[in-house]
Amino acid sequence: MSLSSERLAATAAGFLAAAVLAVLYAPVVIGALFSVIEVTRNGINWGGFSLAWYGKLWQNQSILDAVRTTLIVSACSVSLAIVLSIALALYVEWEGAIGRRLIELVVYLPFLLPPIVTGLSLLIFFANLGISRGVATIVIGHSVFVLAVLYRLVLTRLQSLPATLFEASADLGATRWQTLRHVLWPQLRSAVATGAILAFTLSFDETLISVFLAGDATTLPLRLWAMMRVGFTPEINALVTLVLLFSIALAIIVSLRMKPEGEMEE
Amino acid sequence: MGLSLKAVEKSYGAQRVLQPVDLEAADGEFLTILGPSGSGKTTILRLVGGFTRPTGGHIRFGGTDLTDVPSHKRPFNTVFQDYALFPHMSVADNVGYGLMVRGMAKAAIRDKVVRTLEVVGLGGLLDRYPSQLSGGQKQRVALARAIVCEPKLILLDEPLAALDAEMRRHMQFFLKDLQRRIATAFLFVTHDQEEAITMSDRIVVMDKGRIEQVGAPGDIYYAPKTPFVARFFGDNNLIEGNVRDGRVETAVANFALPAGSRAEPRPVLVAVRPEKISIGGADGGRTAIACKVEETTFTGALTQLKARPLAAPQTTLLVKMTSDPGRPLPERGAETTLSFAPDTVAIVEVGS
Ligand SMILES: Nc1ncnc2c1ncn2[C@@H]1O[C@H](COP(=O)(O)OP(=O)(O)OP(=O)(O)O)[C@@H](O)[C@H]1O
Ligand SMILES: [Mg+2]
């Protein structure tokens, strides 16, 4: 009795999950489908598999430039945020630290405030300093924005590590740098990797802050935004599919990397 | 000349957790810091290891002042209470860490690590990770990691506290034997008096951030200098009394002052070890006490007897004697005579 009702519940849950997944992923699947299938005036030509749109995409210089800018911005802002988050977390955890509260406020605020406020403040800041806007200012804007995510993850990991680990390292003759490299970094690595992926995703599709700070530079979201006025072409489907495959690949890499080494506490 | 602490003290804010302390440890000595929780044992160890800085005084080793020398430059290694093994490194890498950061060649490190792991009896476990080891094995890895660097002094903070009773006894013997073999000084922290007595060359008894007494286990056991030490070492019979005219007067008995004690009249505490009291016999200068028996307990090799002196029924005397099935023990409630030799008694100074 209880077994069959359990099975019923499990089946129902399974259907529900499948339905949710279907609704969530239908647009994605349709987009991916349209990127490889010919759509003509007479309707959809189901038989006509072609990578033509990918070829078109490859020739669309403005989109390719936007993608390149976005990747550069994401990579730079994430790298900057990684270094900053580790430095800040180490400082905040140090027993002699002053102004902990203030630092945390400064780190979290840009993430919590509406992006308009963050973007506008940075715009005014750069304008006052006479810094011309471009890729560099977007990178700074995104670093400030994604720092909170990395900082939180790094700090949580750091706080979970016993202080004796670092004392033991020093006790065995390691300098601060050696301790950082051989003990601290291996312990933080998985948290940093997770944070970096999250931050990368945030930075990749960040639009509002970019609008304020872009100047002449164009990131992918800005480019898509601009294209909305003139209408999309199916090469956008090709682009979205590629981005999706890229994200899935990233997720798989992270989950594979994190298991064997990273999580071996105790 | 080994380790020397001169007027070393430590305060956190306004709270002074370690009063100015003088302490010396000779080369190759097994020195134990013993005291109840919160007495400042770990504080001393951390000061010597360089993990915290003293708020006063000087720490020297072999004549060199180490007070301002950072931890990684001190010729000591520590076995932490939680072992503090690096979870992402294999046993071999953990043990070789101290050699690696000194820039020793890989092959030489491997050699030395293998030999050291043999010494601590973990020959085959080179490629295991700390999460795959038992408590006792982690303990030995931590030990190997410390001794492989050939330090002048090894600091151990309650290294056996997390082990079960049997493993603990085994490790006590093992540690003591290891310490003799590598001829290195150990500064060992424990709150277990039995552990301190069985392992140490000398014991430092601490209470409330102060050193109460330093001495060989026998001295501390039989000749406690302060009431705290007399109480801390288990089951001493402590009786308040006075020294007067070369005699000790207590409510329980009066007897001749033990040889070597100051004759100056003053209040004192008399400590009589339970195994120094026996049933019957006031012969040969022994001091006799007429008592009423409270209870007798057979505990195996020893039999315990509790009795109240007729002259001072508010006091309880504890007696421990080797069990003897052939000898009848006095019944509960019976009157019996207990006796001790006056020169086996410790006169403990009170006051000051
Ligand atoms: N970082 C600190 N800040 C404030 N007080 C501290 C700090 N570290 C230790 N103390 C205090 O110093 C005193 C001595 O602590 P210590 O750790 O040396 O005791 P212990 O003898 O090792 O005790 P246990 O047997 O419980 O380990 C305690 O009262 C403790 O509360
Ligand atoms: Mg302690």
Structure summarized in a few sentences:
The complex is a heterodimer of chains A (266) and B (352). Chain A has helices at residues 2-36, 52-59, 61-93, 100-112, 115-129, 135-160, 163-171, 176-204, 208-213, 220-227, 235-262; strands spanning 37-40, 43-49.
Structural notes for this entry:
- The complex is a heterodimer of chains A (266) and B (352).
- Chain A has helices at residues 2-36, 52-59, 61-93, 100-112, 115-129, 135-160, 163-171, 176-204, 208-213, 220-227, 235-262, and strands spanning 37-40, 43-49.
- Chain A is mainly alpha-helical and 266 residues long.
- Chain A has 2 domains: 2-53, no CATH class; 61-257, Orthogonal Bundle (MetI-like fold).
- Chain A has a two-stranded antiparallel ribbon with strand order 1-2.
- In chain A, helix 4 (100-112) packs across helix 6 (135-160) and helix 6 (135-160) crosses helix 8.
- The radius of gyration of chain A is 23 Å and the shape is globular.
- Chain B has 352 residues and is an alpha+beta fold.
- The model of chain B has no long low-confidence stretch (mean pLDDT 91).
- Chains A and B meet through helix 7 and helix 8 of A and strand 6 and helix 2 of B.
- Bound molecules: adenosine-5'-triphosphate and magnesium ion.
- Adenosine-5'-triphosphate (ATP) binds next to helix 1 of chain B.
- The site of magnesium ion (MG) has 2 residues of chain B, from helix 1.
